Amino acid sequence: MFEQAVVVIDFETSGMSPEQGGRVTEVAALRIVGGAVTERFVSLVNSRVRIPYFITELTGITQAMVDAAPPAEEVFPSLLAFIGDAALVAHNASFDEKFLWSESQRLGLQPAHQGVICSVKLARRICPGLPSYSLGPLAATLKIRFEGRAHRAEADAQVTADLMLHLATQLQQRYTTQAPINPQLLVQVNRLAAAKAPEFLQKYFTPPEHAAVTVAPPAVSIGHPQRFRHYKGGIYELVCEATQEADLSPVIVYRAQNGSIWTRPKTVFFEMLEIDGQRVQRFTPLTG
Q: Which InterPro entries does this chain map to (predicted)?
């Protein structure tokens, strides 16, 4: 389902914004590997704040529950270790990510996740025209069951995980591919205007054998395929170089470890990226 692991996260908080004094009171993080949730990190959090009455009414989280919970300085190092460098998913991700950064910075910690996927934005782009994209109504429309109480971290994270699996399945069915979905593709889709997403996805999922390309001789000798490491860690084999007939631009044809074939413009395949202040090549050749 997914080419690399993703971590779905949900926070319950004492307020709407860390800038206004809001703190995390509960966290759930669910790791999706392939097509299933494989690990969970769930904890109440004692951030030493008073829980407003309306928060207790909304979430069921009481002052006594939080007072008895492990402190933030214990929870967040473990949470960041659980997330690692996976892509992060949240419903209305800007809310959860700002609390993740705020609580981490209080402790001098640095989150290492590689990109953020907002399931609200993603659902709008893959399933446009639905009556609501709030988590509960959206789940009901898509017939995703809501287990547990809404506005509790684990229940909300589980529904968001189920939503992500549903959206990934929609992409595979719509574009008739069984190839796992690269989480970084979904990060890119999130950044697009909704109107541009369908064209982008169509181009991305167009199989190379159906693309109008002229194949050049193999760029490496047969029996010794050149391998490249993607800057996110995946290993790919170079198949050949080709020419896009539409504009005569050069493209790279390459094979993923699962056997799926992909193409990228040559300039994109070899482009340099700036990651955490360092310049890295998108695909780096492997030697030996």
A: DnaQ (IPR006054), DUF1653-like_dom (IPR023387), DUF1653-like_dom_sf (IPR037135), Ribonucl_H (IPR013520), RNaseH-like_sf (IPR012337), RNaseH_sf (IPR036397)
